[in-house]
Design brief:
alpha+beta, two-stranded antiparallel ribbon, two-stranded antiparallel sheet, 4 strands, 46% helix
């Protein structure tokens, strides 16, 4: 398993150098971002309740509040299975907020 991991890393590094040789720094950066995004992490920004609340208010939301993954003022919210599947919260460390757009 360590050998497989090492070979995988070598292939990635070789690919980065080849991309850099062909496309330059911007191309290598795009390649690295693609690798990162394909790993399942697609965040460009992490919000806390203050910054997300401010952003929501700036675009017109009111009654902004932090809620749990199972709470919403949307009728029958649980049936949409957005944040909970089979009674289990998908990402329990996520920030969940709700607001109303008048």
């Amino acid at each position: 398993q360590n050998l497989a991991r090492m070979l995988h890393r070598l292939r990635i590094e070789a690919a980065k150098w080849i991309v850099y040789a062909i496309t330059g720094k911007k191309g290598r950066n795009a390649f690295e971002e693609g690798l990162f995004r394909s790993s399942g992490e697609i965040h460009r920004w992490m919000y806390d309740r203050f910054s997300l609340g401010r952003l929501m208010a700036n675009v017109g939301f009111v009654e902004i509040r932090v809620v749990s993954a199972s709470v919403s003022s949307i009728p029958d919210f649980a049936r949409y299975n957005l944040d909970i599947a089979d009674g289990v919260v998908r990402k329990p460390d996520s920030l969940v907020m709700e607001g109303v757009k008048p």
